[in-house]
Amino acid sequence: MATTATLHSHAPQGFIRKYIFSLDHKVIGLQYFFLALTAVWVGMFLSLLMRIHLVWPTASLPLVGEIRPEMYLSLLTMHGTIMVFFVLTTAPQGGFGNYFLPIQIGAPDMAFPVLNMLSFWTTFIGFVVILAAFFVSGGAPLHGWTGYPPLSAVQSAGPGEGLGADLWITSIAIFCAASLMGALNFITTTLDLRAKGMRLMRMPLTVWSWFITAILGLLAFGVLLSAGILLLMDRNLGTSFYVPLIVVNGQIMGHKGGSPLLWQHLFWFFGHPEVYIAILPGMGVTSQVLSTFSRKPIFGYKAMVYAMLSIGFLGFMVWGHHMFMSGMSPYSAFAFSLLTMCIGVPSAIKTFNWLGTMWKGRIRFYTPMLFAIGFVSLFVSGGLSGPFLAQPVLDIQLHDTYFVVGHFHLIMGVAAIFGIFAATYYWFPKMFGRMMNEGWGKAHFWLTFIGTYAIFMPMHYLGMAGGTRRYSQYTEVAYLQRLMPIHTFMTYAAMITIASQFIFLINLFWSMFKGAKASDNPWESTTLEWTTATPPPHDNFGGRTPLVNHGPYEYGVPGAAKDFIMQTDAASTPAH
Amino acid sequence: MGFALLVVIWLITFGSAYFFIAKTWWLPLGASAAAHWIDGQFALTYVLMGIVFFAAQLSLGYIVWKYRERPSSGPVEYSHGNTTLEVVWTILTGVLFVGLNLMGSSVWASQRFDPAQPGAVPVEVTGMQFAWYFRYPGPDGKYGATNVKFMDPSAGGEAAVGLDTSDPAAKDDVVTGTMFLPVNREVDLSIRSVDVIHSFFVPSLRFKQDAVPGLNIHMHFTPNQIGDYEIACAELCGLGHYKMHGMVKVVSQEDFDKWLTAREAEKQ
Amino acid sequence: MAHEQLGRGGGVTEPPVRGGGDDGQGDDGSDYVGRLRRARLGVAVAIAAVVMIFVSLTSAYIVRQGLPTFDSPSNSYVRDWGEVSLPLALLIINSAVLLISSVTMEGARRSITRQSALAPVRSIPGVSLGAERRFPWLGLTVVLGIGFLAGQYLAWSELRRRGFFIPTNPNSSFVYLFTGVHAVHLAGGVVALLWAGVTSVLDKPIESRRIAIDVTAWYWHFMALLWIYVFALLEFAR
User: Fold this and answer.
1) Which DSSP string corresponds to B114-132?
2) Rounded mean pLDDT of A496-501?
3) What is the pLDDT of residue B219?
């Protein structure tokens, strides 16, 4: 007799099946979240060491001793790699996406739960491999998260460029595989597992952001994988994909004819979509939170969807703006520059719409909302330095200076992180059944908001004055020495801001066990995760399947009994 | 809370803008012919972006204060958006961004689309871990051949760039560690690298170009003020990246000729 | 089965329905149809990812072939792509093996489709469809697949015999790279086939076996098409 195979298994028994090799997307989401949490503390510690070294280059620090220039560069490389991959590509998508995508579309789990579990554990292995680079002979590589050859392709080009660099590439390759697996799951789930009534144009913007991010990842990570394979071959098998005839440390290397620009093209073809992968989920969460806590529908839902789609699409066409100074054709530079300016347009639309959402709303200042508002401010600040960099003629001055570092940190290192914080504070009650402490949340917000501006805004001044990046110290060039006061200020700001993150960490863990009990829908929010129990049961909806009758942001509907209509409510709404 | 947000956001906005307006730390003195145009494009960009910055941040601060929920708040304005407004601000933003870009592109074209004029001073710049070398082709106007076989970075000078001394064109090549240039004459640079990617960056001359091994990149600029201008390597090249610096000395044509003649004489 | 309300305000729920949004068909008894559709969608998405890997390798191939490098002794730009003498006969035989394996794969796919369609009939007590001879489509495909991989190994040995190693010149590097990456993906397909074979021995439900073989078959056909592309690229675009 044919058995009815169900999509998900019955609730598992036993510690290993429940918490270690779980197939439940909610557990897997939390695993990703905690992996990212670990990674971000590692990444922050590395950046703290960097900032201290810049101001006190000869100091000997506890635990690490004196930081030599090559070690500074290893810290820089690993900081970038760990943050970009294991925090910004992991928490928003692997963490919250995994947990809430199925629930928000009314599904009992992801399309392929076994693949989901595998994608987490593969990511985990990737993390272990990259950390291993610190401990092998020669240490971690010093070639920056961008890994440009020949520096990254020749083992003798610097300390750490031996086994450490091979481990770095291997870790990234493992991460590529894990991301592709995850992307496959997200795309299939979104297309195929929506509950009845959950039309595409009724999906919450968070779901749209995870979906589009997954498509970007699907198309981009394969390219990074290819680039990495070629680099491993140049390093270990004597090929010359990237390496021309060069002399390193007085020795003629056995390569010839390769093109360093080939790596840059491949890497940035991945690298640019990657930064949109890092920010899109944060945009989705911001839309969701702003709407909920303004008690108003999102302004221009369709425009928001089209904006995210255009950002995703255009994101594949602008990679050359990282290469204006690289020796690439100046005509190509012009084309990339024009397309880059175009991609500023949908980002601007989203900003207008966020402002429009709060306009004439009734704003409730809970912690998630504070971080969403912070996201908008930081996204504006970080985004507006983009049009400077997008013009090749200005990039002449600004490329490889702290202006760029300030730009991408404000967007990725702060705005995207604020997206993660907003998501954490917003969904914590649903995940853990308890509320986080509001007072500590607000303190965390203020210190972080002001602190991150204090760290990263001055980088723009530093860059305009010619402050070059990836310098382990500013002691050797006269005009750089004069810029040191900026570095000193930023280091103190960094120390205070990093210390403030303990408030979040303590609040997070304390509230998990001691926080006030949460109701099923403490924020009076409309999307499907708030219709189910807190925390959700194993199959998300307790044996029932939601029937969706409304769009995701029906707040403040005139004539309705309450100021919000949940997606599964039967009440009628004005035509829209 | 709404008021606190308004105050903090406005303060951050004014505070950051102050340093842009006061130019506390700013672009260094522009000492090349292109600097005028580049700095002009800079100014245009930061005025326009500054206006957008103020508009966005100040309105964000205002909105979160004005529309904070109070017992006296009226109902929200239930709306799914305004298509006309969307179209209008999309077009305006597009015009602003694309227009800004097109205005800067003529400067880019003049800098990069065309080669140097005839009569420009030829100088070859070679980057290596962790120093810059400069080669003047001498009276014959031709660069002599170089070969990795002859490269010995530790020996400095001609050996560092691997000059093939058997090539007749190399006999009059002068290799130095400091770049001398005559003022008000266009320079025709050939930029190379021996090992990894470096970047030849002279902030005061508004000039930057990556030195890529396997390529010989031609660029040009025209220094128009006498002075000494520091070079800072602007592409991560290894542990000595932070100390890979050099100097460009722009002098009068007379002083330049005297200097070059003296270097030629030393070779005999 | 009692239908409980979900959400406030009286939403009516239906029995578990799988499938996109507003085209939900209602109760179809099992979600087998949905699982098949989902699995096919998944493999299509996976194929898209593999396509991107080969697109990027192809662009690397074109760029590396075309980009000249600066030769300082002669003060000029030169190209160094190099020649490779491909063992054509061997590769053509190998291609034939792979194409035939696609045929046998399709045979396996259709066979199990038929079997799973007939399963409900066969399960009626007292009904017999007669003894069916089962042609070993799946086994043949595995053998041919492994044969292809062995043939690739022979091709690499022949290349080495002719003096073309991985680092010999960029052309030879790409030959090994493309064929190697393809072989790795094909080996993954072979593992999937073995898994599909194992599931039949383990007596999993016929629907699950059908889904496994169906998606593997589409992947397998893609591998054959990909091979034709790789072969054509290496042979003609040099």
Assistant:
1) S-PPTTPEEEEEEEETTEE
2) 98
3) 95
pTM: 0.94
CA distance A257 to chain B (A): 7
Domain membership of residue C69 (yes or no) is: yes
ipTM (interface pTM): 0.96
pLDDT in tens, A358-393: 999 999 999 999 999 999 999 999 999 999 999 999
The total of structural domains in chain C comes to 1
Query: Chain C residues contacting B, CB < 8 Å?
Result: 69-70, 72-75, 77
- DSSP string for B181-239: EETTS-EEEEEEESSS-EEEEEGGGTEEEEE-TT--EEEEE-B-S-EEEEEEE-S--ST
- CB–CB contact B162 C72 (8 Å): yes
Q: Which CATH superfamily is domain A36-258 in?
A: Cytochrome c oxidase-like, subunit I domain (1.20.210.10)
pLDDT of residue A262: 97
Please judge whether C11 and A569 are an interchain contact, meaning their C-beta atoms are less than 8 angstroms apart: yes
Question: Nearest Cβ partner of C173 from A6, A233, A571?
Answer: A233
**Which positions in chain A touch C3 (Cβ < 8 Å)?**
544
Q: Please give the domain boundaries of chain B with CATH numbers for all domains.
A: 2-68+84-112 (no CATH), 121-267 (2.60.40.420)
CATH topology for A280-514 is: Cytochrome C Oxidase; Chain A (1.20.210)
- pLDDT tens digits, one per residue of A76-114: 999 999 999 999 999 999 999 999 999 999 999 999 999
Contacts A–C by Cβ distance under 8 A: 199
**Is there a contact between A280 and A209 (Cβ–Cβ < 8 Å)?**
yes
Domain range for C166 is 31-122+135-236
Q: Which tokens go with C8?
A: 């406030």
Q: What is the pLDDT of residues A167-217, one digit of tens each?
A: 999 999 999 999 999 999 999 999 999 999 999 999 999 999 999 999 999
Chain A residues lying within 8 Å of B97, measured CB to CB: 341-342, 344-345, 387
Q: Where are the domains of chain A?
A: 36-258, 280-514, 518-576
SS3 labels along A232-243: HHHHHCCCCCCC
